[in-house]
């Protein structure tokens, strides 16, 4: 798409000035910002930023939840040729230091007092950070730090500049070119410091347009923006595609009200990682367990029909008149009210990405009439590499290459991508750039996979994580830790898992239980517990998780390639893995190497044949305090199964 973000915004404001661009729920009431109002706000903010000294190619960090004025600030920065850098709002202050210093950031736009406090705390380490503007003034009335101002003050200054110099803003917008840098996204940094992924207006908008064409998106779509704006997935769906399509983006009041807001908005276009869909389904199943026996029987009877008929209906396959009637009755009694309760009654297209989604979970949503599909992409590819077409959605693939994308498999099995949406570079890191971008334009994804006979891409694991079992009965067998971990996480009782086995004679694993699902399971059985650590240590919970592990093993045994990845021993961790403790990224990907080092005593106990091991772990609380959690963890064996022989 040969344009820029600010130009698209101005085009919408000219063509549809009174149409809704953004909505924000404030104090329980939805407030609407029209395209014309947005254009005026962006104009004033841009002029205010120029008065503060922002110049072309300067970097500005933006930190907060999805808020209309934060979106406007990104457009204002881009209007001046600057580069917005969204950062994760739930990150600890120390996590901001590297991006701010690496990008030499002097300007910051943040949501509220929490983010202001973080930036003020690290200011001694980032002396170039001169200006900080905040959106929400609550709690900040008595702050008197140099360079700290409200967004209202910025807008007021900008309005005066815009009045004095009426042509300034339009002239600045006119200078921008599609190949100019539009934004920078810092990767989650599973190993070492995060890398700044540099994208142009063209790369982001081209992929947004490709997704728009693929799913026939229009300005009539409604989107709920509730994931972190620093995540490229949320940024593409609620920023790049928002401007490419001109649809309405709705911003929830808070994280606590997302479920309610989802029902009120009734989005037509929805995007979430699997854990969100898992959480919604877990809530449904917990409520169903509390229902009367009659309602439970009706629900399960209808779901039996749904699993058999629903996906076929969505895929456009022939269904008998009797089955169609049964599903229609189920839709009237169960599926329709359930979609409405989840907030999916108007969803036309729903996508999940970021991690593998369990087949049962995927089938459940498609069974009840939600057009849930998968996509494949990354920060470096501006998300849209592969998408699943309507009528071709499957749990075991991530779709077909979308318009403009070429896929090639290296001899090693690594997936290579050529696309108009590729990153320009890693900021100030030519070595890393050269490592992933070949001279002839192929991007090394780091993922291992293959294209099936139908042209759909299948992902096995991260290429660098695929290892080999060494020694034992499965010597030389492939070990794909993420594949194993995802199979475990398909069970509602397992929240996270970490598998070990590369260059070892067998596979062992750590498990994090899902507190809500296992807690509800325990309460139904009158099992009392004092908290996560106590619940995780219950013998009954170990039996529950062992059953999950052994079902995974039986599944792996059916795959001759991965039969050696069966889990022989496991333990349930005494604490939940947490990004604040450095164990996960902000996008909730486990840092396997870090965890292996941090819990080496547990890894050694697993492989040393011990039946229990004492561990004490330092933890960081949300308010910044530190403490420790200790426990003696049980280590148990799991049954494994002989590999099934391939049919002749």
What does this structure look like?
With 648 residues, the chain is of the alpha/beta class. Among the domains are: 5-271, ANL, N-terminal domain (Rossmann fold), CATH 3.40.50.12780; 466-637, GMP Synthetase, Chain A, domain 3 (2-Layer Sandwich). The protein contains 21 helices and 28 strands. It has a five-stranded parallel β-sheet, with helices on both faces. A five-stranded mixed β-sheet has the order 12-13-14-15-16. A five-stranded mixed β-sheet has the order 24-25-26-28-27, with helices on both faces. The longest helix has 22 residues, at 293-314. The mean pLDDT is 92.
Compact summary:
The protein has 648 residues and is of the alpha/beta class. Helix content is 39%, strand content 21%.
Radius of gyration (CA) equals: 26 Å
Mean pLDDT: 92
The tally of beta strands, per DSSP, is 28
What is the approximate shape?
globular
Q: Tell me the distance between the termini.
A: 51 Å
The unreliable regions are: none
Q: In this structure, how is the largest beta sheet organized?
A: 5 strands, parallel
What is the number of helical segments per DSSP (H or I, 4+ residues)?
Answer: 21
Q: Work out the helicity level.
A: 25-40%
Full CATH superfamily name of the domain at 5-271: ANL, N-terminal domain
Order of strands, widest sheet: 4-3-5-6-7
CATH class categorisation of the domain at 5-271: Alpha Beta
